[in-house]
Write a structure and sequence with these properties.
By secondary structure, the protein is an alpha+beta fold. Helices cover 35% and strands 11% of the residues.
Length: 127
């Protein structure tokens, strides 16, 4: 049985090598012969889905889906930072804050900003 398998494989390779080999990018390739018959499909070819209302509108107006990149260039630090989330450009806090005219020079600007933020959050939670 094993000998028969080996002889069948050798015969198949001999038949393949009867076809003229072609060299492509330094490799020897044997082009497969055209199929002699086509196998039928089990199910019919699916019909194309109809466009949604939005897709029809976008096609008519020429609107294309544009993906925004996750990284955005930060000119102050000369590097790319995430557009949102941790280490994003919006989450960078300044290490100094200017004192406005007429404001108390001894007041802590960072703690007052924190208080204002906490008040806004509390106001949102009430609503």
């Amino acid at each position: 049985r094993k000998i028969r398998i080996i002889s069948l494989c050798q015969q198949a390779f001999k038949e393949l090598w009867k076809i003229q080999p072609v060299e492509v990018d330094g490799f020897t390739v044997i082009p497969c012969p055209d199929p002699t018959f086509l196998l039928p499909r089990e199910k019919p070819v699916p019909k194309p889905k109809p466009l949604t209302r939005w897709e029809k509108f976008a096609q008519a107006k020429g609107i294309q889906n544009k993906k925004r990149s996750r990284m955005v260039y930060d000119e102050s630090s000369d590097q790319y930072r995430p557009r949102w989330g941790k280490d994003s450009k919006a989450n960078i806090k300044p290490w100094f804050e200017e004192i406005k005219d007429g404001a108390d020079a001894t007041a802590q600007p960072f703690s007052s900003a924190t208080k204002e933020r906490q008040e806004k959050v509390a106001k949102n939670e009430v609503n």
